[in-house]
Design brief:
By secondary structure, the chain is α/β, with parallel strands linked by helices. It has a single domain, classed as Rossmann fold, CATH 3.40.50. The chain is built from 11 helices and 7 strands. The structure holds S-adenosylmethionine (SAM).
Length: 289
């Protein structure tokens, strides 16, 4: 059964989107708008991280490469409608729209202003059927078994509950369908030091990145259990941390140029937990059983 969409009163606090919208209103050639305000609002996948430079152009290419990896794991075709949860400015929808034909893709987001921008930026092509829907990842406004694929690119840590989201994704997926996500997953032995470290630094990080939940589950094993409970089987588990690390250098350069000290600080902290290896960037895929 389809659930009700959230009321207009439902709000998430995502200060980095506030910054993006402030800068979009002033100049579209702003480096932050180019990097995070026009298509993908996610980290990049750098094929050869040791040779990566910190330019905006390389970051944009790396963001596309991350999308490509996730879409390949998902396996998209016209027979299987795709739902992209937490779609941001519709980067994944745009990516698919440009490369495939005859597909049905729905982007869902909790923030109306992001959906409005996605609609402005993306034009249907190649006989594709695109739609953007306002809703909460944990109360999906769709009927059971509506989709063959659900993606959630770099957003599950903002959701009120990973458990509720996985249950909802399972409900709207057809049997045999796939859920593909990317997430920052703590390394199991680092959970305690990470939790203690976050007690000191999470507030500063939250001032720019908003609510960011590293825990529950706090390991791949935890994810495997959660998946089993919700009617999924973990079929793909890829640690791409080292390929994402150049993103921090690129972002820090941009944030330095625009002089956003709070965002620089938050990003340095996020970089540190990834560089020491406590938090791993993973692409995970689940099959609906
Ligand atoms: C880091 S951005 C990623 C955006 C997009 N997936 C991309 O890769 O470009 C996180 C996204 O999650 C969305 N989000 C946060 N909480 C949400 C919720 N409860 N339901 C739906 N979307 C949510 C935010 O509005 C934002 O668009």
């Amino acid at each position: 059964m389809a659930r009700k969409p959230p009321s207009a009163a439902v709000r998430v606090r995502l200060p980095y989107f506030d910054t993006l919208f402030e800068r979009i209103a002033v100049a579209s050639d702003d480096p932050l708008v180019k990097a995070l305000g026009t298509r993908h609002v996610h980290w990049g996948y750098y094929g050869t991280p040791s040779e990566a430079d910190d330019s905006v152009q390389s970051l944009i290419e790396a963001q596309n490469a991350l999308t490509e990896r996730m879409v390949n794991v998902a396996g998209v075709d016209p027979q299987h409608p795709l739902l992209d949860v937490g779609c941001g400015f519709g980067g994944t929808v745009a990516y698919l729209n440009e490369r495939l034909g005859g597909i049905s893709v729905t982007g869902l987001n909790i923030e109306l202003r992001q959906l409005q921008r996605a609609r402005q930026l993306i034009e249907e092509r190649n006989g594709n059927d695109l739609s953007f829907v306002h809703g909460d990842a944990c109360i999906l406004p769709f009927k059971d078994h509506s989709f063959g694929v659900v993606t959630a690119v770099e957003c599950i840590f903002h959701f009120p509950s990973r458990l509720r989201f996985l249950k909802e994704a399972r409900r709207v997926l057809m049997p045999g369908g796939r859920l593909v996500i990317s997430d920052f997953v703590p390394l199991a032995p680092a959970v305690l030091p990470l939790a203690l470290w976050l007690l000191a630094h999470a507030r500063a990080m939250g001032r720019f990145y908003g609510w960011f939940n590293y825990f529950s589950p706090s390991s791949v094993t935890g994810y495997r259990l959660l998946a089993r409970y919700c009617g999924f089987r973990l079929i793909h588990n890829e640690d791409i941390t080292k390929n994402t690390l150049p993103t921090y250098k690129a972002l820090l350069r941009i944030l330095g140029i625009i002089g956003h000290r709070g965002a620089e600080r938050a990003t340095r902290y996020a970089a540190w937990v990834s560089e020491v290896g406590w938090v791993r960037y993973r692409i995970l895929a689940f099959e609906a059983t």
